[in-house]
Write a structure and sequence with these properties.
3-stranded antiparallel sheet, alpha+beta
């Protein structure tokens, strides 16, 4: 069994594919994105559920 996230209303408690830590995440709208954030996200891919 694999657990990638736990939903908590509008947020999720999930393992971050960048930092490899469990963190509270939320939806980020496109107007909040910076070039640095997009580049960092593009450099890290999430793992598959097996």
């Amino acid at each position: 069994m694999s657990v990638k996230s736990i939903r908590l209303g509008t947020r999720r408690f999930q393992k971050c594919p960048v930092h490899q830590r469990w963190e509270l995440a939320r939806v980020v709208t496109e107007d909040e994105w910076s070039e640095e954030i997009v580049a960092e996200a593009a450099a890290h891919r999430d793992s598959n559920i097996i």
